[in-house]
Task: inverse folding
């Protein structure tokens, strides 16, 4: 069996090689490109979306209450 120290050295060398490889640069470039595209698409985070969903739900509830009040006032006025 291989010595654990030897395996650790091989792992460290592989990590160093991968960190300095063109694949690492390619990954960075792809991430930057995707980030740029998402910024242009005017997207929001999930947290922002969830907050706006809650605001919309509360607004709809208030609208229902106001519509009911208006309907009641109109009935009282015509009676």
Result:
């Amino acid at each position: 069996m291989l010595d654990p120290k030897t395996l650790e050295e091989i792992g460290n060398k592989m990590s160093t090689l991968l960190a300095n490889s063109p694949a690492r640069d390619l990954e960075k470039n792809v991430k930057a490109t995707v980030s740029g595209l998402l910024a242009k698409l005017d997207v929001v985070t999930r947290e922002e979306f969830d907050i706006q969903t809650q605001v919309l739900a509360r607004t709809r509830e208030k609208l229902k209450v106001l519509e009911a009040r208006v309907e009641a006032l109109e009935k009282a006025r015509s009676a």
About this structure: Residues 46-78 form the longest helix (33 residues). Residues 44-79 form one domain.
